[in-house]
Design a protein that fits this description.
This is Transcriptional regulator. It comes from Streptomyces sanglieri. By secondary structure, this protein is mainly α. It has one domain. The chain is 62% helix and 0% strand. The protein has 11 helices and no strands. Helix 5 runs antiparallel to helix 8 and helix 7 packs across helix 8. The protein starts with 13 loop residues before the first helix and ends with a helix.
Length: 183
């Protein structure tokens, strides 16, 4: 199986939504381009330094650490379930994955704290993500959820019909274009 297929996600995960929204805000600040500009001005203040540091990890690898979103597998999971799963992440997973996949992260004091005391720091992060979700995502959640369901359908059909050779389409710009319409 092609390595790219390990990065394909065909399910809704509210934590992915939160991390994606935070990444957009970290990248552009309150000046996110249209059609997200009004949302960004309202949501930018909800970012915390810890959330910024965690999102910055994605810049080098193109994804956030798997332990941040891998805790819940139920189709009916909501953001509270996912945050609970995040807070209960086995402590050993955190330093192991960060050392293996994100060695540059050790230079960030907030990530270094996550490595030293993962249980405590993951609980703090879960609280901050819950607050970010309530203030930045939840107010616009209905339209976003419909758009994401449509995107999942598109990606799963593309993968089913075209197999591995279409993975670049699955992880490529269509997602950005589709998400841009949800503003």
């Amino acid at each position: 199986m092609d390595r790219q297929l390990f990065d394909v996600r065909l399910a809704l995960c509210e934590l992915w939504q939160a991390f994606g929204a935070a990444a957009l805000l970290v990248r552009f600040g309150p000046d996110v381009p249209w059609p997200h500009s009004s949302w960004a001005r309202e949501a930018h203040g909800a970012l915390t330094p810890r959330l910024r540091s965690v999102v910055a990890l994605a810049r080098t690898r193109g994804r956030i650490p798997s332990f941040l979103t891998g805790g819940v597998t139920s189709r009916k999971a909501n953001v509270a379930d996912e945050l609970d799963g995040l807070a209960r992440t086995p402590a050993g997973l955190v330093p192991d994955e960060l050392a293996r996949e994100y060695p540059q992260a050790f230079n960030d004091p907030l990530i270094a704290a996550l490595i030293r005391e993962p249980e405590v720091q993951l609980r703090y992060l879960a609280v901050e993500l819950a607050n970010f979700w309530r203030s930045a995502i939840e107010p616009r959640g209905g339209g976003l959820a419909r758009c994401l369901e449509e995107e999942i359908l598109f990606r799963s059909r593309t993968l089913a019909m075209g197999g591995e050779r279409h993975c670049s389409v699955i992880s490529g710009s269509r997602s950005s274009a589709r998400t841009a319409r949800t503003g």
